[in-house]
Amino acid sequence: MKVLACNGPARKAGVRTGMSKIQAEACPGIILRKRVSADEEIVQQKLIDCGFKFASRVESTCPGTIIVDLEGTERLLGRPQEIAEKIENECGTSFDVSIGMAANPDTAFLAARGFAGITVIAPGEERSRLASLPVSVLPADIEILETLESWGVRNFKVLSALPPIPLSARLGQRGLHLQQLALGKINRELFPAEPPQVFREGIELEEAVELLEPLGFVFNRLLEQLCQRFVARSLATDHVLVDLILEDHPDQQLHADSLTPQPAPLHQTRLKLPVPTQDAKVLLKLLQLDLAAHPPQAAVKKITIEACPVRLRTTQTGLFQPSAPEPAKLEITLARLRAVVGEKDQQGRERVGFPAVMDTHRLDSFQVMPIFSLTRECATEMPRDKVATTLTLRMFRPPLLAKVKVKDAAPFAISFPGIRARVTDVSGPWRSGCEWWSQVREWNREEWDIGLATDGQPAVYRIFKDCGSGQWFVEGIYD
Questions:
Q1: Is the pLDDT of residue 309 over 80?
Q2: What whole-number percentage of the chain has pLDDT above 90?
């Protein structure tokens, strides 16, 4: 393991880039931190997002550096110095920034690397303004920099004064390219960064957190950062994946293979919203309800939130359609109901949602959909003749046990919990219950529709007889 980067105090203590870990540990007062590529990608993406707030063409030049094409933005953003100050105010809340403004990308890149703060270089002043920079600022290999050091070339001014032909004979075209960079004469096209397909935010906690309440503050911060990035790009999200790296104590778990490294325990949570949203509060509430129902098994030491971007959905309701509840509030209400009654029943169906009839011949076959989508057919008003002739059967689950008196091979009187009456109208029977796709080959149900007059109010019920046991049941009532 070698040192990839170090700050100013570390350099004063004797640390240099390329040192081994053992050499760096010999320096007093040194803190070594392991490189995390995922965190570097998140930080680089944040820097790119800051650039997209000022222009549509942003180049991700190298880790920690971006180049923004600001041509044509003077009327909107002001003079170069004012634009640089606005960029510093925008990015300075998250980064320690150095900004270079110039007529070509490479001059601005070298100015930002070599000078602290804001540096504005007017066209034609590239050579004079860059003359004092050390050659270590150039994007060159270590061998070329050592060669220039051995020649006594330590800054841009000396490098610019070298004759081109002898320089090319000794360092090749790469040497001429570095000299042109020092003169500020290279003008190239940018390679624009592509917008990210996945937005990701993460944080590694100094101390593992067990309680969900303090975790809520961390979730709120990360979700707000994600939603700010969505708002800046006029996007939203309907799919959020949360990864929680849990604290592991291998010294407390003695196993035969304890010497082999084990992956850190992971707790994943997935949120699927019915409509895209930019509201961090809605996402935070749904995440808290989900974690309350499925809490992690150990303390959390690292959090990563990944959101898939989608376009915002705009809808316009009709003048004669009933107003529906707000989708975000409806989803929070459904999540609270799931936390109270549970997610699935014994048959594996969702407990909370919207019922839908399945495309099958199986009796009483339905499912509960977690996401509601109102189709055009349901939204249109049904003709009056169909409304008058359509009956809806309200099912009793489980069916109510009943006692039925039979006269002339038809139900004559019935009694079940809450009802005791004579049958006024009867229709049937119909045989059902045969499942030709399974082992059940018998028509074991005899169904009847009967009319009752209870307390002067007519009602129509669906009853059936189990041919195997001879027992009668009330299956439902027609609305």
A1: yes
A2: 13
Hey, is 97 helix, strand or coil?
Answer: coil
Residue of 237, 301, 242 whose CA lies nearest to 267 = 242
Structure tokens at 10: 């570390």
Longest dimension (CA), the chain: 120
136: amino acid identity, one letter: S
DSSP-derived pairing of the beta strands 118-120 and 99-101: parallel
DSSP 358: -
Query: What token pair was written down for 287?
Result: 């995440």
DSSP string spanning 407-426? ETTEEEEEEETTEEEEEEEE
Report which residue type is found at 51. G
- Between 372 and 288, the more confident residue is 288
Compute the average pLDDT of residues 70-90. Answer: 87
Residue 463 CA: distances (Å) to CA of 44, 158, 262, 408, 446: 68, 101, 60, 17, 8
Rg of the chain in Å (alpha carbons): 36
Tell me the residue type at 333: T
| CB neighbourhood size of 426 (10 A) | 15
Dihedrals phi, psi of 328, to nearest 5 degrees: -65, -45
- Alpha-carbon gap, residue 117 to 88, rounded angstroms: 9
Question: Nearest 5°: phi and psi at 305?
Answer: -115, 125
d(CA 242, CA 245): 10
Nearest to 475 by CA among 434, 438, 446: 446
